[in-house]
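Morning run. Coffee first, then this:
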Amino acid sequence: MNTTIEALDPNYPSPYPLFSMRPAATIFFTLALSACSSASPDAQAIVDGALEAAGASNIDGSVITFDFRGKHFTVTHDGGRYRYERDYTDSTGTVHEVLSNDQLYREINGHSTQLSAEADDIMEEDINSVVYFALLPYRLNDRAVQKRALGTSVVHGQLYDMIEVTFRQDGGGKDYQDRFVYWFHHERCTMDFLAYYYHSGEMGSRFRQAIHPRTVGGIRFADYLNFDADTLGLNDIEHYGSLFDAGALETVSIVTLDHIKVQARKP
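And here it is:
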């Protein structure tokens, strides 16, 4: 049986009803509907509709800040250029980390710190992973992304278009062998569920349900309930939706973004 969010954290604010959410502007909903509800849309059309519903066009040129598990993130994108900053305090002092197209470094108390290659890899993976999931579906039109429509499925009585995402080795990063499946609402185009199989560290899979969706600066953000199932492998994660609908998954964690702000980047 699915664990409720209140059972995991009784102080967590009640999420907005997932299936009652509607875009604020009628004209926006009409545009999204036309992109997602055609009889047999291909993978690219479904993803394009999801990007529009998520307000992804507002990400470039904006400065996005949020807190995640006690660490403060500052994110900027400008076309193919990006800069991710992470700030926090630990036993070593005040830590400032930067990941960009050109740089990867850490400062402690204002002084640059030399890291081992392994520590660099861990820092890069940690920062990139948090930002990637926070901004989904923003990166689903990257050059290395390979998309394939898997048909439709019904979850909680709602119709979803399922999209598989894999990655080319060239440009796909260290985790290019990972596999994702996304559930996009057939009418609203919102990304309400996703599953992924990862190869970094111990191999395994996760399934996420979007909760508490909200729009900040024209961009849709969500928190997630995180589930897993030991019985599903790389080629089986599309079955997560059926297991979830049957109440056969247990919640293992809550993924939340706090204090989200979106501001126009200064010239």
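The chain has a mean pLDDT of 84. Good start to the day.
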